[in-house]
Write a structure and sequence with these properties.
Residues 264-343 are annotated as: Disordered. Residues 273-297, 305-343 have a biased composition (Basic and acidic residues). The protein has helices at residues 8-15, 21-34, 42-52, 57-66, 76-88, 92-105, 111-120, 133-145, 150-158, 164-177, 217-221, 281-298, 303-318, 322-328, 339-342, and strands at residues 228-235, 252-259. It has 343 residues and is mostly helical. Strands 1-2 form a two-stranded antiparallel sheet.
Length: 343
């Protein structure tokens, strides 16, 4: 069929920058066909990377499906854009396309790609047709990026009936032992960890309303399930079987999967249910402050008078009290019976 855009320049300037997401989607699909020279110019790759982060998930998914036809394997700009979608995108369809794209363009044994694919083996996706497409695609991609290492493939094949958490943990241990990874995936302190490289690996992914139609009936019925997310935790030392002279008493900081709150929105509160979310103190102060201003305005106080009153209160708070002044001068307030009361 005839293409909508006439040339590479037409795709770049009229298509990818269009205000209509349908045109951006078509341009993302047609641009690789117009790029005859290989490798593609850097500015073209940079513009295409912006489309991978488009606001519409349909455009992001299309760009990820065709990026392998545009760039060479190992392209750093495209790889980073893909990994950002793999870690942070809320659309399961985009994350799946990102996994498949990483399998095609990630360079051999790229550690950041391995980190991201390990993370997608623990994706919070819903089960579809008795399978987990993102997790299964991530496992295949890991093996492909590793060059189909026979020993790792054998271990993963033996663990095919284990939980995905156990399989991901075992794979991470194998990669750490083989020197393929510099640290654990959730190590927030290592300079080569995903978080240190600028990836938000603890983003809570959820299903957006724009992709609900893509879910099966069973998946739609489970959309309101309590979401899992990575939560920080301090792990106490395990002294079982360790001599007292060799015991370490430092707690270890890790992230663990946990249920995100109670499943209700943060603003949820009702008298009849008896379940309330504790309102943050600063939010409560702002709400009470706004209510006080409304009352003053209704009573005829001007906004200027309210602001001047606030300024006087703030200045009074900044002034030291009599006790503080005397304490700084090393004197005792005669109205205070003891120095303990003064302090």
């Amino acid at each position: 069929s005839a293409m909508q855009f006439e040339s590479k320049a037409d795709c770049l300037h009229r298509g990818l920058k269009s205000s209509r997401w349908e045109e951006r989607q078509v341009a993302a699909k047609e641009l690789p066909l117009h790029c005859v020279r290989r490798p593609v110019e850097t500015y073209v790759v940079e513009e295409y990377a912006k489309v991978i982060a488009d606001e519409k998930f349909e455009v992001r998914r299309t760009a990820l499906e065709h990026v392998a036809s545009l760039v060479e394997r190992g392209c750093e700009i495209s790889t980073r854009a893909i990994l950002k979608r793999m870690w942070e995108d809320e659309s399961w369809a985009v994350r799946l396309s990102a996994v498949r794209a990483a399998e095609k363009i990630s360079k051999h044994e790229d550690e950041q790609s391995l980190f991201a694919l390990l993370g997608r083996m623990l994706d919070t996706e819903l089960k579809r047709a008795d399978s987990y497409p993102i997790r299964e695609a991530a496992l295949r991609a890991v093996l492909k990026v590793l060059g189909n290492d026979e020993s790792i493939m054998m271990v993963m094949n033996r663990m095919k009936n284990e939980t995905w958490k156990d399989r991901a943990s075992a794979l991470q241990v194998l990669l750490l032992g083989a020197g393929k990874l510099p640290c654990r995936m959730d190590d927030v302190h290592h300079e080569r960890s995903p978080t240190s490289q600028g990836y938000d690996i603890f983003t809570k992914t959820s299903f957006g309303s724009d992709e609900t139609s893509m879910l099966s009936k069973d998946a739609r019925s489970g959309r309101e399930a309590l979401p899992f997310e990575m939560k920080p935790a301090w792990i106490p030392p395990n002294h079982a079987g360790v001599p007292s002279s060799e015991r370490q008493h430092e707690w270890e900081f890790r992230y663990r999967m946990g249920i995100d709150t109670s499943g209700f929105e943060p603003s949820y509160s009702t008298e009849s249910s008896g379940r309330h979310v504790v309102e943050p103190e600063d939010a409560r102060d702002r709400r009470e402050r706004a209510h006080a201003i409304d009352v003053k305005l209704k009573n005829g106080t001007s906004l200027r008078e309210i602001q001047e009153s606030d300024h006087r209160i703030e200045r009074a708070r900044e002034q030291p009290t009599r006790h503080e002044t005397l304490l700084r001068r090393g004197r005792r307030d005669p109205r205070v019976s003891s120095r303990k009361e003064l302090l």
